[in-house]
Amino acid sequence: MTRRGRGRPPHPDLLTPAEQRVLDELRQDGTNAEIALRLRISPDAVKYHISNMLGKLDLPDRHALAAWHPERERRRWLGLAVPAGLASLGRPLAWTGATLLAVAVVVVALVLIGDDGDEPQSMVVPAPTTMPKATAEVGGSPATATAPCANGTVVPRPAANPDLVSDCESLLRVRDTLRGTATLNWSAGSAMTSWEGITVAGTPQRVTKLELASGSLDGQLSGLLGNLTALTQLRLNGNALTGGIPSKLQLLTALTHLYLANQGLVGCVPSSLRAIANNDIAAMGLDDCGAPADVSYEQGPLSAGTYQLRWSPGGRPVFVDIPPGLTLEIVTLYLSHSDSGVEHRSVLLKEHNGTAHLCLSLTWYGECGRWEGPAPPTRDSGLPIGTLFDLVTDSLWLGP
């Protein structure tokens, strides 16, 4: 492995390049099948991108999408309307009171214009997603990876194997977080069967093994690994990985081998992982994690650990990890409805003693917006705030 720069840069534009290409073709009055043929992607990928854009821009149908222009959206942002990615932050659901409502309005305005009144340059608004079958309840927002994984090179016959496409999406998204300054040959230009450390097997095919032990990986474990629900072996021991163990690994119920020791992992171990038949957890010297604290009606500060949010008493919890080196506060929970009547739930988080904000969707279990602010680019952990926010977003999962 050779060395490279750390981190995955957020996409700077409202639409991803893949979405923009689909939109350009949609404006030519093409059907999904025609667009797919011209762009050499699957019809499902076209449908996926159109759905993402409709949700992201809060538009009712493909005709409104074809008529949409970014210049109009930019003027709407500068007029202090909430941008598309944060459009759901319409009214607070919990902790409402005049004072908190006023604070929430000020916070949203700050997210939009920054401390100095200028439009924030670091605002990132990722795509709301209709999740693929394999990840519908375990989180993630793989909009930008969908087209590459469905290109027919990475996954043969992608339309016939959507679960392997979902595994591909998760691995491409986790690659930069996991490798740190090292490199992995995982790319959309080669078949998954040639990717370093990856075994694809079964009928239908899935990723069943991830084996990268004793290498030079010096990044972080990502909760996106929890999307690989057919994994039987996860071997990452003997690297230089740091940070915590994602709670989302508890979703890997098919695991028979788990090896993570002999590196810089800290925090605690989700207790269910000790039940895996073959593991090296005892060699890590870490205690078991306790039950995640319910912070549905608290505002923080929330330090490193796993937390749960329930939208209503007795409802299914959404779990989220806060990585070492980051402390957050809950500003408020929001409930809104799009023009088409679709309900959207989200939580707005703020960096404790900082200016950065992160919006998390409790509807599609992904990110609905962020503002990284003018604060120093790195935190006590040595990681950029953007990388820390990626770890938070990728850790989201829906509990039982």
Structural summary, described in words:
This protein is of the alpha/beta class. It folds into three domains: 11-79, Orthogonal Bundle (Arc Repressor Mutant, subunit A), CATH 1.10.10; 82-121 and 292-398, no CATH class; 128-284, Alpha-Beta Horseshoe (Leucine-rich repeat, LRR (right-handed beta-alpha superhelix)), CATH 3.80.10. The chain has helices at 17-26, 32-39, 43-57, 62-67, 70-78, 98-113, 146-149, 162-179, 385-394; strands at 198-201, 206-211, 233-235, 242-243, 257-259, 264-265, 278-279, 293-294, 305-309, 318-322, 328-337, 343-351, 357-361, 367-371, 397-398. The strands form four sheets. A five-stranded mixed sheet has the order 1-2-3-5-7, covered by helices on one side. It is globular, with a radius of gyration of 21 Å. It starts with 16 loop residues before the first helix and ends with a strand. The model is unreliable at 1-12 and 71-146 (pLDDT under 50).
